[in-house]
Design goal:
By secondary structure, this protein is of the alpha+beta class. Helix content is about 35%, strand content about 30%. It is globular, with a radius of gyration of 15 Å. The two termini are about 25 Å apart.
Length: about 160
Amino acid sequence: MDLRAAQPSELNVLASLWHQGWRDAHLTLVPEALVALRTLDSFTDRMAAALPGVRALGPVGAPLGFHFIKADELNQFYLAGAARGTGAGAALMADAEARLLDLGITTPWLACAIGNARAARFYEKSGWTLARTEVVPTETSAGMFPLEVWRYEKQLGD
């Protein structure tokens, strides 16, 4: 699987992938006030800001997934519906974990929407452990939105 730096020309396709993946996983799980803020434009703006650090999976122009890291957090991790169950997620996760280790991060974390059983199963299968439930400030176009999430962690390296 081709894992690479995302290209500026992929901004819109990556934002669309993120928007659709977020809607698939979160529409029924998060407060309506957050859903209202999660427009395609909001994902495009957030992707534009993150793009220099985004890693994409798949051919240039037609990515099947992406991830990016903020500090010690695997901040975003998304796969296109067509890529789920193909092994693409494992490859993307291995890349994310390698990048975290390259940054010297040995105990990264990620946030999972409470009730997102599909994602939770994937994270657990990938060796991540549910550490606790906590409220995290979630970026929106209207500022930070406090969201209660499952916090997963993983010990990397030796």
